[in-house]
Specification:
This protein is an alpha/beta fold. The protein is built from six helices and seven strands, in the order βαβαβαβαβαββα. Bound molecules: glycinamide ribonucleotide (GAR). The site of glycinamide ribonucleotide has 16 residues, from α1, β5 and α6.
Amino acid sequence: MPNSPATKRIAILISGRGSNMVALADAVRRGTIPNAEVATVISDKRDAAGLESANERGIETLVIERGARTRQEHDREIVSALAARQIDLVCLAGYMRVLSSELINDYRGRILNIHPSLLPAFPGLDAQRQALEHGAKVSGCTVHFVDETLDGGPIVTQREVPIHEDDTVENLSARILIEEHRLYAAAVAKTLKKLSIK
Ligand code: GAR
């Protein structure tokens, strides 16, 4: 059956486990993210575990590795894959690369990322470890639009997660991840709604 014109096409970019990708795909299937379809999952790593989870759900998967190319050349190939599939919204889900302007210029305001801290605190790698090492009493997760900066674009929504005295990186990460899955689905639904009334 052809898509209704109202169906928004989402591409999810991953580098690893892909649990946020699965949360988004399942939210689309349940209708928590309405009028949407996950059209493709793109990984920059051939061995990303999330590829199998996407395949199991019948979602197209593409591996687009950087190899010896520049960041721009790599992103140019991703942009052509997105354009060929008429993608409306790009969701980074554990995609561990800073995007170049090749991708950002074409999809500005239509690329979201999820990060496991209350940005602007603790950008970059190991956000949960950074929060623990700073003695933060609260952390959480953030969904934001992607720009040229590292985890720095405008914030869409955030959720707090308290840090306990005896927290380890593992159990804090696990508690934040539960909230990430809920927050990302809500943020994608909200963003698609805004895009469809533009
Ligand atoms: C998630 O915690 C996500 O917030 C984080 O990587 C993990 C990926 O898990 N992303 C970043 O740190 C981005 N700066 P997943 O592959 O299971 O979704």
